[in-house]
Design brief:
It is a single chain. 36% of the residues lie in helices and 19% in strands. It is α/β, with parallel strands linked by helices. Strands 3-2-1-4-5-6-9-7-8 form a nine-stranded mixed sheet. Strand 1, helix 1 and strand 2 (27-34) form a beta-alpha-beta unit. Helix 1 (12-23) runs antiparallel to helix 9 (200-217), helix 1 packs parallel to helix 11 (234-243) and helix 1 (12-23) packs across helix 12 (290-300). It binds beta-D-ribofuranose and calcium ion.
Length: 302
């Protein structure tokens, strides 16, 4: 079976991605590490435990990671995910934080700002060589930002961390970038049928997703979502790629890096299609099997 380690800032699409992994056959989720991002680190830990509880998987260890980016201040994405990160759909039975844990061929899936991963490789430079592959939702390929003019949230929330990770994780690297996820939205018709499944997981998802669906449909956020309408479950693409090797049907293979300074471009991903950069190359998702994706999303709520 595939062994996955997940690094999340558990917002609504992280929840969907985690549920996708937990429902996948032949996948063992070894643990989940939490990092600041969509909301505070404390909320991220709570949310992760809530998602595991909704899936009856509280035995999976959850770890508390970095609360702040390497430089600068925290971002948050309450306008999209809700202030608490999970749609402000309170849960009186949420598991307590006392469940948090102190501490082969494993793949790592990061769907959050990359602070934990950057700190981890500084503490143990041999870590990347122990990984089968690293899958990241983050960065952009057309300079379209969703957080700053040119910055995608996970890279913009900690540009130095993204820089370190792209430079120092010398293992196969797969990227689900922002514009790609926008070009592959889930239609509203699909979402309706997906959420109407008669299961506790679907009812849990229907509660936490409401806020994000309203944000997706709102006039002010429409421009962010690049093309067309529908729900963008960004993190689930990185997870689906980690779960199923045949999910990606076409990818670009270019050196990638991140802007650390620039009047408008701090946090923007650079993809060198010309050949100037000596940086290692990443596989940048271009086409994926959307039928498979929908099946995995449906299975996630079964
Ligand atoms: C990323 O930012 C977060 O809000 C989402 O969970 C996703 O990881 C999209 O830019
Ligand atoms: Ca995320």
């Amino acid at each position: 079976s595939k062994k996955l380690l997940l690094d999340v800032d558990c917002g609504v699409d992280d929840a969907q991605a985690i549920m996708l992994a937990l429902a996948a056959p032949n996948v063992e989720v070894l643990g989940v590490t939490c990092v600041h991002g969509n909301t505070t680190l404390e909320n991220v830990c709570k949310n992760t435990l809530r998602v595991l509880q909704a899936c009856n998987k509280l035995e999976i260890p959850v770890f508390k990671g970095a609360a702040k980016p390497i430089l600068g201040n925290n971002l948050s994405a309450g306008h999209f995910h809700g202030e608490d990160g999970l749609g402000d759909a309170p849960d009186p039975n949420a598991p307590g934080l006392d469940r948090l844990q102190e501490e082969g061929a494993v793949s790592l899936v990061a769907t959050a700002p990359l602070t934990n991963l950057a700190l981890a490789v500084r503490l143990d430079p041999s870590l990347p060589s122990k990984l089968r592959a690293l899958y990241i939702m983050g960065g952009n390929t057309e300079s379209r930002g969703n957080t700053t003019v040119c910055g995608e949230f996970n890279f913009a929330a900690d540009p130095e961390a993204a820089y370190i990770v792209l430079k120092d994780y010398h293992c196969p690297l797969y990227l689900a970038c922002w514009e790609f996820t926008c070009y592959n939205k889930l239609s509203w018709e699909f979402c309706e049928a997906w959420l109407a499944q008669d299961t506790d997981k679907a009812r849990f998802m229907a509660r936490i997703i409401r806020h994000s669906i309203e944000a997706c449909k709102s006039e002010s956020l429409q421009k962010e979502f690049v093309a067309g309408t529908g729900f963008v479950s960004c993190d689930s693409y990185a997870m689906a790629a980690a779960v199923d090797d045949s999910f990606i049907t076409e990818s670009d293979h270019y050196p990638v890096s991140v802007e650390l300074t620039g009047t408008h471009t701090r946090g923007m991903m650079i993809m060198d299609t010309v050949g100037f950069l000596k940086e290692r190359k990443a596989f940048i998702m271009k086409k994926v099997d959307m039928e498979k994706f929908k099946q995995m999303m449906i299975a996630a709520l079964k």
